[in-house]
Structure formats: structure tokens, C-alpha cells
Design goal:
Layout: E1 2-6, E2 8-19, E3 25-26, E4 33-34, E5 39-53, H1 54-57, H2 63-69, E6 77-78, E7 83-86, E8 94-96, E9 101-107, E10 110-123, E11 128-134, E12 138-149, E13 152-153, E14 158-165, E15 187-193, H3 196-204, E16 209-215, H4 220-224, E17 230-236, H5 243-251, E18 256-260, E19 272-276, E20 287-289, E21 295-298, E22 307-313, E23 318-319, E24 325-326, E25 328-333, E26 338-342, E27 346-349
Parallel strand pairs: 1-27, 14-15, 15-16, 16-17
Antiparallel strand pairs: 1-20, 2-12, 3-5, 4-11, 5-10, 6-9, 7-8, 9-10, 11-12, 12-19, 13-17, 14-18, 18-19, 21-22, 21-27, 22-25, 23-24, 25-26
Length: about 350
């Protein structure tokens, strides 16, 4: 059975394809060296549309009367407060633009206005070299270094800086008193966070990035409102950091790293921490087969967050303690405990 791989690698080759959702302008060329925060491509994208019903707003009975009152034309740009339509006369009634934007269409006595049109930028996300350029859409970047992927991120933001590891044990909690001025400009690695004020203090320092072992789900809206990247490794709830990630991060303290907090499961994007290294590693694969000897992380209770090694992939279907029949594997945990886990609750670590 094929499974998605979560990478926790001390050294690997990494290839990332960064693409715009619509046609735009590519800003890099083949062979160019880029940093994680460099913009690879950008486009103008209208993020919101407003429909102005002129006929109803000005109380016209006929569509033709409404269209004669409209003073703008399709394709024209307007600013907030500009007159879109006016009845005229002593007691003139007016429809004004509610925001800056561009008139997309005028039809049936209604005006469709595209507003909040702003540049949409795609970042490299890792340090590396541009190996392919896709005209008007994006580019592929390849780099080599340590790679740790997370379970959740607060959006496509990029941070670069010195990594400071605060947690001394996988189950540590990040508290307000840990947020010292000396962390300003750093990418901080910490344990569980359950206090929204911690994130607000991190923003005021400011940090360039924050990597958490886990986080309470109540903090999702707060994290999404922050203007620096936040990456959660294990998921939501109080879950200790898995041993492989803890060892790699602890031994990489005070290195220059980058964090990319993109989170788009449908598009295959996951948050990542990248540690650039001069050595070349084997290219990391995004999928693998469940097999004996594979390191895995357990997703479901009661062993959620624990890591182990597959000793056997059971043939056919296995009847689990809850009575459900499902494909399963025998997993040896770090404490030499042998457990049976459904394959759906396993994630390969490589």
C-alpha cells in the first residue's frame, strides 16, 4: 500500500515546484541561485468582487433607464467614493464605488466591480538553484540540506534566520516567560503552545518564524492572523515532538534555516523547515510503500504522536480491537512495545 511520506531528514536533495494559480510574470531564470524569501513569480489577482445593482438602488423600473444613469464603462478603474451612477435633477440619487477597483462588466442595470486587486507572489521557499522555468506560471528550485515537514502551517509565509531551540525535552511547553528580547529576529523551535498571548508576544519581538511541536486548536485563528510563519509538527492537542524531529532540531541549534508555512493539503503543499547544507543528498521522495523496517509515526489514539518501526505488514484485513476490519501492521515502538496499528493511522518518516 502506497503512503504519504513525512520527511525528517538530516541531509537530502529537495526539489520544489512553485506555481502561480493564474498566468503572471516569472522573475527568475534557469541556473539562478535563490534564497527562500526570494519571489519566484507574481501576478495580479482580484480577491473580491462586488455587485452593484444600480436599477434597484436608484429605484428604476426599466433596465434601460438604469444603464443610461451609469457613468462608468467596462474596464475603467475607479476609486472609493467615485460616482458609478446618478439619476440627475435637483434631488439626485447616487451610487458610489464602495472601494478602489476595476469595473469588470455592466449588464442588466448592474455593475460588477473587482476590488482588492493586489500582487500575488510565490516564494522560493528553500535556498537553492532554479532548474526549470515555466513561462508565465513559475519555476522549479532544487537545494540540498536538512528537511523537516509539519502537519499544519498558518499560510504561505517565509522566514529566514538563526534557529534557536528552546525545548529541552519533547513534551516541553512554550510559555510567556520564554519569549525574551534576545529571540528577536530568530526562528524559534519550541514544544506545545496553549496560550494565545505567547503568539502575540512573539509578533511584537518580532520573531522571523516559530516551529511548535503541537498547539491547541483554539489558537488557529490567532496563528492565522500573525504576520510571521508558524509551523506545527505533530498537530493539535498536547502532543510531544516525535523523537526523530527532536534529535535533528536539537543538533541543528544556531544554524541558519528557513521556514515556509504553506498549508494546502489538496495541492500537496505542507509547511517545511529547511536547513541549507553544502553537501549533496539523495532526492527526497514524497511517497513510499509500507514495508518492514520503515520508520512510522502513529496518527490515532491511544498512541498518537509516537514513532516506531514496522516489523510486519499483515496480509489481508485485520480485525482490530474495536471490531473494524482494516489493513494493518505490527509496529515496534521506541520502548520495544509491539502494537497493531491500521495503515490508515500510520505515516512514514524518511
Amino acid at each position: 500500500m502506497l503512503a504519504q511520506v513525512t520527511h525528517i531528514l538530516g541531509l537530502a536533495g529537495v526539489r520544489r515546484v512553485r506555481m502561480l494559480p493564474v498566468a503572471g510574470r516569472v522573475l527568475v531564470s534557469t541556473g539562478q541561485r535563490v534564497h527562500a524569501g526570494d519571489v519566484v513569480a507574481e501576478t495580479q489577482a482580484a480577491t473580491r468582487h462586488i455587485l452593484l445593482d444600480v436599477r434597484r438602488s436608484l429605484n428604476f423600473q426599466r433596465v434601460a433607464d438604469a444603464e443610461r444613469a451609469i457613468q462608468q464603462h467596462e474596464g475603467e478603474r475607479v476609486q472609493k467614493g467615485d460616482v458609478i451612477a446618478e439619476t440627475g435633477g435637483m434631488f439626485s440619487r447616487i451610487v458610489r464605488a464602495p472601494d478602489d477597483g476595476q469595473i469588470v462588466t455592466i449588464s442588466g442595470g448592474r455593475v460588477l466591480l473587482a476590488v482588492e486587486s493586489k500582487p500575488q507572489q510565490i516564494f522560493a521557499g528553500i535556498n537553492g538553484v532554479v532548474t526549470d522555468v515555466y513561462p508565465e506560471r513559475g519555476a522549479a528550485i532544487e537545494g540540498s540540506g536538512g528537511l523537516i515537514q509539519g502537519a499544519w502551517g498558518n499560510g504561505g509565509m517565509v522566514g529566514e534566520g538563526l534557529m534557536v531551540t528552546l525545548l529541552k525535552a519533547p513534551e516541553d511547553e512554550l510559555k510567556r516567560t520564554d519569549m525574551e528580547v534576545s529571540l528577536r529576529g530568530a526562528i524559534v523551535v519550541a514544544g506545545y503552545c496553549g496560550d494565545a498571548e505567547v503568539l502575540r508576544i512573539a509578533a511584537t519581538l518580532p520573531l522571523r518564524g516559530l516551529v511548535l511541536a503541537s498547539m491547541t486548536s483554539e489558537l488557529i485563528p490567532v496563528a492565522q492572523g500573525m504576520e510571521f510563519p508558524i509551523m506545527v509538527l505533530e498537530g493539535f492537542g498536547r502532543v510531544p515532538m516525535n523523537g526523530a524531529a527532536f534529535r535533528l532540531l536539537s543538533t541543528s541549534d544556531k544554524r541558519d534555516v528557513s521556514i515556509y508555512s504553506a498549508f494546502n493539503p489538496a495541492g500537496g503543499e505542507r509547511p517545511e523547515l529547511f536547513i541549507p547544507l553544502p553537501s549533496n543528498g539523495e532526492m527526497a521522495q514524497d511517497t513510499a510503500y509500507f514495508a518492514p523496517g520503515k520508520a512510522v509515526r502513529i496518527q490515532g489514539d491511544p498512541y498518537r504522536g509516537k514513532t516506531g518501526v514496522i516489523t510486519q505488514v499483515r496480509p489481508g484485513m485485520t480485525v482490530l480491537p474495536n471490531g473494524i476490519r482494516a489493513p494493518a501492521a505490527d509496529v515496534r515502538l521506541e520502548q520495544e512495545t509491539q502494537v497493531i496499528i491500521p495503515l490508515a493511522n500510520l505515516e512514514i518518516l524518511e
